[in-house]
Amino acid sequence: MSCCCCCSTDLNCWLDIESYRRTSYAEEKIRDEKARDIQTKYLNKKYFFGPNSPAGKITQAKVISMAGGWGKLLDATVPPATLLEAQKYVRHRLENKWLPLFLATSRFAERQRPETGLDNITEDLLIQKRKKSQALYKLLDSKWVSSSKDILTFRKALVNPVTSLQFRRFVSMKGDLLENDVLFWQEIQKYKELCHLHSDRTLIQQKTMVIISCFIDSPIPPGLQVDITPDMAERILERKMEATPYLFREAQLTVFRVLFTHWPDFGTFRSDLTKETVLPTVERNRQHVLRQKHKATEVDEEEEDIGLELSDLDVKDSLVSWTYSQYIEALDKEEALNKPPEEETVEETPDKPVVPVKKGGCNVSPGKDMVA
To answer: Which part of the chain is the RGS domain (predicted)?
Structure first.
C-alpha cells in the first residue's frame, strides 16, 4: 500500500468517525448505519488490524478488548467508545506523520501565497486612493486621534491578503514582534468566526490552544510572542477553556492599536511605488535591515571579546608585578639571613704603670687588702 493511499485512508477514517461522533443521539438509526459502515470499511485486517495500521499490536488488542472480543467486533455493532479509541490513533498518525510531510510540499507553499484576485487588488487600490484623499490622523488635544473611517480602512487592510502581506513585511523592519502581531490579529479573527458559526466546542478549544502555544505561551523563548502585557496573557491562560468569542478581545485590541501607529508610515512608503514593486521593495529593505542588525551584533560581540581580553591582560600584569616584587623581597631577606656576621676589632691599650698611693705612711697598691 503506497504512502498516498495510507494517508487518504487515514483521513477518510478520521472524517467518517468524526461524522459519526457529531451525529445526534436522537438519530439512532443513522448512527447505527454509520457505525456499521465504519466497522466494515476500517475495523478489519486490511486496515486497522493489518500491517499498515495506525496502531501498534498492544493498542490493537486494547481496541479489540473494548469491543468485547474479536467475535463481537465482527458480528455485533461496535460501541461508540471503541470507535473513538480507534479515531485517536488515526489522528495521532495524521498529525505526526502525514501532516509534516504535507507541510514540506510545494503544494502547501503555493497555498500560502496571497490570493491576488481581481477583487483583492481592486480593494487594495481603493484603500490607497482613499488614503491620499483624506488625512489619517487629526490633531486633538495635542494627541493624534483616528477617525472611525481610518479604523475601518485599516481593518479591511488587515483582512485583505494582498495588503496584509505587504504591511506585515513592512512592520517586520520596525520591531521584532510586529509581524507576529499581524498574524495574531488574523488568527483571532478566524477564531471569532468559528465561535459565531457555532462550530464544535472541541474544534474551538483546539484553535484556542494553537493560538496560545504560538503567540502567548510559546515553547520557543520568549514565551510571549506578541505586544501584550504579561498580565493580559495570564488572564487568557486562566480562561483558556472558555470557548467564547471574547476570550482574546482585549489582546486583539491591544495589538491593533500597536499596529495602527505604523499604518500612516506604510501608506507613505508605498504611495510612490506601483503595486508590483511594493513587495519586492519591502523585501529588499527588510534584508538590508537584517544585515545591519547582524553586523551591529557582530561588532558588539567583538567589542565585548576585546574588553574581556584587555581585562584578562590587566589581571595577568598585576599578578606578574606582584609576584616579582615578592620574589625580590624574598631574595633580599634570604641574602640578609645568609650573610656571615662581621668580626669585632678590639684595640689593645698599653698597661699603665701602677702608682703607689701613700696613706698614713703605708704604701697601698691596688689589688691588695689593706690592713689597718
So the answer is: 153-259
Does the structure show a pLDDT above 90 at 351?
no
Query: Cα separation of 121 and 115, whole Å?
Result: 9
Domains and CATH numbers, the chain: 3-111 (1.10.167.10), 153-272 (1.10.167.10)
Round to whole Å and give the CA distance between 217 and 1: 40
> Cα dist. 261→19, 154, 253 in Å?
46, 11, 13
In this prediction, residues 167-192 reach a mean pLDDT of 91
Cβ contacts of residue 297 below 8 Å, gap of 6+?
Answer: none
The Cα 204–Cα 240 span in angstroms is: 11
Q: How far is CA 114 from CA 111, 117, 163, 165, 225, in A?
A: 8, 9, 9, 7, 23
* Helix (H) / strand (E) containing 6: helix 3-22
Q: In the predicted model, is pLDDT for residue 315 greater than 50?
A: no
Q: Amino acid identity of 25?
A: Y
- The type of residue at 171 is V
Range in 176-185, 234-243, 247-256, 362-371 with the lowest mean pLDDT: 362-371
Which tens digit of pLDDT belongs to each residue from 200-218? 888 899 999 999 999 999 8
Cβ contact 9:93 at 8 Å: no
The 10s digit of each residue's pLDDT in 102-112 is: 878 887 777 66
Question: Which residue type sits at 185?
Answer: W
